[in-house]
Amino acid sequence: MTFILGLTGSIGMGKSATAAMFRARGVAVHDADATVHRLYAGPAVATVEAAFPGVVVDGAIDRLRLGQRVFGSGEAMKRLEDLVHPLVQRAERDFIEAARQKGARLVVLDIPLLFETGADRRCRAVAVVTAPAWIQRERVMARPGMDERRYAAILGRQIPDVEKRRRAHFLIDSSRGLVFAEAQVAAIIAALSSTL
User: Fold this and answer.
1) Quick one: which residues bind ATP (predicted)?
2) Segments of the chain with pLDDT less than 70
């Protein structure tokens, strides 16, 4: 049986770098964000364009245009999620099945809004990547195109870090450098391997 570990963390916490650490150790990782990017380049184009006319550029969803249409509107965001989430979940199921066929004993689901979307119910355990709020803010505000309003809106859609930590089975502190984070990832894999 394949053990499904959810991996999540609020914006700027270092989740993507942590997912890469699992991959580097041979663990199959399904990246929900990468799946959305792939869907926006093909499978979801017609559906999203029908709901939000004018967001397609050169045959693909323009994320900036789409963001302008849904940003700040709970109703528009929900409509988009209702269209895209089932497609992402189908890709996730296919990924898990393919990993099972290859004999994988551990699979990681890298999902930014894992708790917010109820995806934690599809996982046997959850690892949360965390860092102090001031480090998170510093990392996020350094991103191109980020401003206070956008940052506040993103945080408003996410469960607070303290609540994510409370719900986690494992914590990965990304504030103490890559070597420290890698040691935590290795410890999680070792702990789960003993139960597989």
Assistant:
1) 12-17
2) none
Q: Confirm or deny that 16 is annotated as ligand binding.
A: yes
Q: Is 177 annotated as a binding residue?
A: no
Q: Is 42 annotated as a binding residue?
A: no
193 is in an annotated binding site: no
Q: Is the CB of residue 69 less than 8 Å from the CB of residue 52? A: yes
In the CATH scheme, what is the homologous superfamily, with its name and number, of domain 1-27+105-196? P-loop containing nucleotide triphosphate hydrolases (3.40.50.300)
* Sequential DSSP letters for 133-194: HHHHHHHHHTSTT--HHHHHHHHHHS--HHHHHHH-SEEEEGGG-HHHHHHHHHHHHHHHHT
Where in 115-176 does DSSP place strands (E)?
Answer: 125-130, 170-173
> CATH 3.40.50.300 spans which residues of the chain?
1-27+105-196
Tokens representing 34?
């990468």
* pLDDT number for residue 187: 96
Residue in the structure block whose two tokens are 């994988």 = 104
Residue 156 main-chain phi, psi, to 5 deg: -65, -25
